[in-house]
Amino acid sequence: MDKVVATALEAVADVPDGASLAVGGFGLSGVPNVLIQALHERGVTGVSVVSNNCGAMESGLAVLLAAGRIARVTGSYIGANKEFARQYLAGELEVELIPQGTLAERLRAGGAGIPAFYTPAGVGTQVAEGGLPWRYDGQGGVALASPPKEVREFDGTPYVLERGIRTDFALVRAAKGDRHGNLVFNKSSRNFNPLAAMAGRVTVAEVEELVEPGAIDPDAVHLPGIFVQRVLALTPQQAADKQIEQRTVRS
Questions:
Q1: With left for phi above 0 and alpha for psi between -120 and 50, is residue 138 left, alpha or beta?
Q2: Residue 18 near residue 46, CB atoms below 8 Å
Q3: Sorted alphabetically, which PROSITE patterns does this protein's record hold (predicted)?
Q4: Helix, strand, coil percentages in the chain from 3-state DSSP, rounded to 5
Q5: What's the pLDDT score for residue 6?
Q6: Average pLDDT estimate for 169-187
Q7: Long-range Cβ contacts of 187-190 (<8 Å, 24+ apart)
Q8: Residue 228: alpha-carbon gap to chain centroid
Q9: Rounded to two decimals, what is the model's pTM?
Q10: Which of 51, 115, 132, 137 is the most buried (most CB within 10 A)?
Q11: How do beta strands 94-97 and 142-145 pair?
Q12: Angstrom distance (rounded) from CA 75 to CA 183
């Protein structure tokens, strides 16, 4: 039951080239930076990533993206990541953009063993009808477009069929975790981390504070340890290393 591993490199030692990864984080909040850096150090490449966004400010998944290690991204937000946009438009990167709520539910459904579900989000758009550019040809044309999805009416309202997401591995970051893998997330870092953790067949969690089993009130657990296979305790320096994406000050 003790799922603690000694180092980040040990935690991701069996992640192969071409693996699919569900990665937690919301903006710069709750991003498993230490595990991502370990993947970079190992030289893992050709990965398919499922994450709300693909890193920013040279942190998070931006580390793998800048090194050309990511082959495909399934996410909701490109945002201010200029390298992400450049690779996408240049045809170097395949990108499936998904409505944010749909992405969250696809991860949760995959983790809950639900193969697919119907949602009204995207009905009447290219999300349902197909034609969204997944890969450009580098010259302004579309090399690969999304296929149409099944649309069905329930009580007179159309819904589009979306498939649950399962990945080979999941990388997440929690504010607190115990040796059994029970996790607690802080504020907005809870947005996607529990869902990403559920979707991974092997889930690795880096935790800012490692506690003994029983130290977390069962009612306070955000993600039960059944979804987590490995736990990495961060050093105080690693736990405190948190960036601010948009710093705003006033006199």
A1: left
A2: yes
A3: COA_TRANSF_1 (PS01273)
A4: 25, 30, 45
A5: 97
A6: 98
A7: 187/29, 188/26, 188/27, 188/29, 188/30, 189/24, 189/25, 189/26, 189/29, 189/30, 190/30, 190/222
A8: 15
A9: 0.94
A10: 51
A11: unpaired
A12: 24
- Please report the DSSP string for 162-212 in residue order: EE---EEEEEEEESEEETT--EE--GGGGTTHHHHHHHEEEEEEEESSEE-
Tell me how far apart the 2 most distant CA atoms of the chain are, in Å. Answer: 58
68-109: per-residue pLDDT in tens?
999 999 999 887 788 999 999 999 999 999 999 999 999 999
**Would you say 91 and 135 are in contact if contact means Cβ atoms under 8 Å apart?**
yes
The three-class DSSP label of residue 60 is coil
Q: Which long-range contacts (CB under 8 A, 24 or more apart) does 77-81 make?
A: 77/52, 77/53, 78/53, 78/54, 79/53, 80/56, 80/245, 81/53, 81/54, 81/55, 81/56
Report the pLDDT value the prediction gives residue 57, as an integer from 0 to 100. 67
Q: How many distinct helices (H) and strands (E) make up the chain? A: 8, 16
pLDDT digits (tens, 9 = 90+) for 190-242: 999 999 999 999 999 999 999 999 999 999 999 999 999 999 999 999 999 88
List beta partners, residue 211. 178
